[in-house]
Amino acid sequence: MKIASAVFIKSCTEQKHFPKENIPEIAFVGRSNVGKSSLINSLVLRKDLVKTSGTPGKTQVINFFKINNAFNFVDLPGYGYAKVPKEIREKWGPMIEGYLSDRKDLKGVVFILDIRHRPTEDDKRMNEWLAHYKIPVIYAATKADKIKEREIDGQIKKIKETLGLQEETTVLTFSAKTKTGRDSLWKNIGGLLKTVT
Question: What is the pTM of this model?
Answer without folding.
Answer: 0.91
